[in-house]
Design goal:
The protein is of the alpha/beta class. The chain contains 12 helices and 14 strands. The strands form 3 sheets. The chain has an 8-stranded mixed β-sheet with strand order 1-2-4-3-5-12-6-11, with helices on both faces. β13 and β14 form a beta hairpin. α1 crosses α6, α8 runs antiparallel to α9 and α10 crosses α12.
């Protein structure tokens, strides 16, 4: 009998774990957790990695506590931890995650000379109420979110399942590997809050090749594989609170200081920031809450907004202008302001050499894949902190897109993707890993 090729061996292994990959995705989908509260998800990832034979870094070994942004309050973290334990999280690993230190890194050291290669997978979900319509597959098939107003509306449940699938292949093909392999499971990608804290904990300090990926986005067809992206937007996430003075709206409105009007004026005026000539920019107010009662001058208001820029310099200009305008509006309405930066991302570029290597690896798979060198990302991702850290020490980094048809767009309450992309993604990552080793080990 003819010996199977590497491509055939990987395909056969992936096929053997296909049901497990789907089960992982559906389980994570049912128990979505937002940034820094991913206790259940992270603990199950850590346990699985440990069972496969990986050395596992968690808690303070994976996340620098003081480098985190947008951390929930103590009560929310405590409730999330209790819920995770109640819903099947692993107590041993949850105990290591303290107050939301939910990053996990699996390390596989082959003991043979070769590069250190890292793959990043994000864990967190979004504060969105999931669709209940029967045509929505998670609802129809019984794996819709069990938590109200929280769902995986961006595919991170799929990313986590892909990461565990890749971990399984690494464990089963370890005799063919060289160097060190790191699987980075990152919390709090939404809002640009998690990657920097993992970088500052040193998780990519020794990495020579770094690969991250996302399901869908600009890759909207099944079997599309995009080897790198351009146009990462740098971004800043800002929370604003205005505090005024309450008063009776009829007989003493002059005694009040209207925080609602200040917030409404700000939401409109921010759109008038002059655009920078150095590149595209964005600004958006996504949340505005204000007021206490119909007949009371509203004394409190809060906004959640973000800026974006085609370069870090353009985004910094937008951020500075937004902060200037916040303070000016507060002065105009005679209210006090509190400004908190709760998330940030930077711009980054993919390395052409690694993009070409990924193309060669994927093209070697066959399977009728449509391989595209690069597409514009046109959004923000804090994996850029990891990319830049690797590149700053002379390493190579790229960010892939894995094509899939979607039932609705990202961050939509009916978002879903074609689950066939999951085993295909595991296979792609396995080929990329072994191609990097083949070209750079020894």
């Amino acid at each position: 009998m003819a010996r199977m090729s590497t491509t055939e061996q990987i395909a056969q292994l992936v096929e053997s774990i296909r049901p497990k990959i789907i089960r992982w995705r559906r389980d994570f989908h049912q128990y979505p957790e937002t940034g820094w509260t991913e206790f259940r998800t992270a603990s199950l990832v850590a346990r699985t990695l440990s069972e496969l034979g990986f050395a596992v870094l968690a808690g303070r070994n994976a996340v620098k506590p003081e480098a985190r942004m947008g951390l929930p309050g103590a009560a929310e973290l405590r409730e999330a931890k209790e819920r995770a334990l109640r819903d099947g999280g692993d107590p041993f690993w949850i105990a290591k995650m303290d107050d939301g230190l939910t990053g996990v890194v699996g390390v596989w050291d082959t003991g043979k000379p070769g590069p250190t290669i890292a793959f990043r997978f994000d864990l967190d979900a979004l504060e969105i109420a999931e669709d209940t319509a029967p045509e929505h597959l998670p609802a129809r098939a019984g794996f819709r979110s069990r938590y109200e107003r929280v769902m995986h509306a961006c595919g991170h449940d799929g990313h986590t399942a892909i990461g565990l699938g890749l971990a399984t292949l690494i464990a089963r093909r370890s005799d063919r590997l060289a160097g060190r392999i790191k699987l980075i499971f990152q919390p709090a990608e939404e809002g640009g809050r998690g990657a920097k804290a993992m970088v500052e904990a040193g998780v990519v300090a020794d990495v020579d090749f770094f690969v991250a990926a996302h399901l869908g986005l600009m890759a909207r067809k099944n079997k599309q594989v995009v080897c790198g992206v351009s146009h990462f937007f740098a971004s800043t996430k800002i929370d604003v609170e205005f505090k005024g003075v309450p008063a009776h709206a009829a007989f003493a409105p002059h005694e009040g200081r209207n925080a609602l009007l200040a917030a409404a004026a700000l939401a409109v005026q921010l759109q008038g920031i002059s655009r920078h000539g150095g590149g595209d920019s964005r600004i958006n107010v996504g949340v505005l809450h204000a007021g206490e009662a119909r007949n009371t001058i509203p004394s409190r208001a809060s906004l959640k907004l973000e800026t974006r820029g085609e370069t870090s310099e353009v985004n910094q200009y937008m951020t500075d202008e937004a902060i200037r305008m916040i303070r000016a509006v507060a002065a105009m309405y005679d209210v006090s302001e509190r400004i908190e930066l709760v998330g940030q991302t930077i711009a980054a570029s993919c390395d052409g050499e690694l993009v070409r290597l990924v193309r060669e690896a994927v093209c070697g798979m066959g399977q009728g894949l449509e391989v595209i060198d690069s597409l514009p990302f046109l959004a923000s991702e804090d994996a850029t902190y990891m990319m830049q850290a690797v590149q700053d020490r002379g390493g190579k980094a790229t960010y892939m897109l894995l094509g899939t048809e979607r039932k609705a767009g990202h961050h939509h309450h009916a978002f879903d993707f074609a689950e066939d992309v999951l085993p295909r993604a595991v296979e792609i990552f396995a080929h990329v890993l072994e191609k990097i080793i083949a070209d750079h080990a020894g």
